[in-house]
Amino acid sequence: MFKKGFDNDLYIKKQTENIKKRIEKFDNKLYLEFGGKLFDDYHAARVLPGFDVNGKVRLLKEFNDLAEVVFCINAADIEKKKIRADFGITYDMDVLRLIDNLRDMGISVNSVVITQYNGQPSAESFKKKLEQRGEKAYFHYPIKGYPLDVERIVSDEGYGVNPYIETTRPLVVVTAPGPCSGKLATCLSQLYHEYKKGVSAGYAKFETFPIWNIPLKHPVNIAYEAATADLHDVNMIDPWHLEAYGETTVNYNRDIEVFPVVNNILTKITGQPDLYRSPTDMGVNMAGYGICDDEAVRQAAKQEIIRRYYKALCDYRQGRGEKETVEHIETLMNGLSLSLTDRAVVTPALEKSEQSGCPAIAIELPNGEIVTGRKTEIMSAAGAAVLNAVKRMAGIRDEILLMSPLVLEPIMKMKSDVLHRRYSELSLSEVLIALSICAATSPVAQLAMSYLSHLSGCEAHSTNILNAADSATIMQLGINMTSEDEFPSKDLYY
Fold first, then answer.
1. Which of 6, 195, 250, 477 has its CA 20 to 30 A from that of 389?
2. Domain 8-211+246-289's class?
3. First to last CA, the chain
4. pTM of the predicted model, to two decimals?
5. For the purposes of burial, counting CB atoms within 10 Å of the CB of 40, is it exposed (0-12), middle (13-18) or buried (19 or more)?
6. Residue 493 has what pLDDT?
């Protein structure tokens, strides 16, 4: 059941004020490195119930004509066609998607910077594609001796080789489709050029997690570590901040490790040795002030850690992840005394599967009630569970059929006889299409359909790894699904 733990309006207010103060600190020009996801930040929404998944974009809207956005993408990521896992699209395509989304909201997009360019043909092709559509695109280049050779980096042979990105607004947001895209280097390169032009611009970093002003071992921070376990991120006490101010704050290992390097570069560019005294100082994150119910966010974060464990387990089973990731998250769970059965939908799903001898799914409804569904000859477990869930929410008796066999049988026959599919049972998306057809003539089916939106935010567990089709539809419905690391069959092509 949903329990609000985060005041998003307060967060946006405080975040906006903090960024404006940081802009004023410099020559009315701030390069703000935006970490994490611009849109669809479901991790934040899950661990901070009440957080707006598009909160960062809402934040940008607060600045209206004061902000513009620069996108970074690593040339190597374009070359190897790196995929954004949650949407299943390549990073370069995600940049195009994000640009469209921002402009639809009236937010100015300046350009795209292709970082670490070293002659990659696909990077050249992407730049050409952008320019043919009227977009500004730049190459930034690898710098010999980076990041330790500060003399070379902060010179005409280093940042000076990179083209200057013409910007006109006080706030320049530098973001990317994923990590290691060159956001920091792009910000520092711009600072180098700004100072050469006589503009005392500034740099700051905006990351939602880890939250610097809550305890290191707070479940919200632990959940972030679980989410980034594959990147080997580790939350740490910021030793630089502790030494400078005697204050305990939380950051993560990469920022802490790179701080001396970044600080040296900033000092070389600006001539100000004490511009920042710690990586925490660089941040403008006010998420901690938005927590209005600590117990609610603690419980939400614990559930997220379990979800991350199941994901890591399934990724490993499918050859997409490492065993070390699974073991790291397991260690985090042990530190919080978490068990898999702390996830309410796990046991009912396993019991349903054991009773039926078939793959099964359990869904927790908004009122806390749990319903199950199993795979049948007609439909997948996902299809059965979703139908049972909407029937229960709509108050429709179990014995009432939502869909006529006259609709279902021709679909199954077409799959087997015309399309020559090995399995003819309906996927979740096919079930929903069939339901929508029946809704045209059946008030009961129409009533059931009206409750599909109520599934958003519900928890669910599957006794088997879902196929790609069902997994995608579950995600589109907004259901938080976990799965056992078991394949539904012995088929290799799955």
1. 6
2. alpha beta
3. 34
4. 0.92
5. middle
6. 63
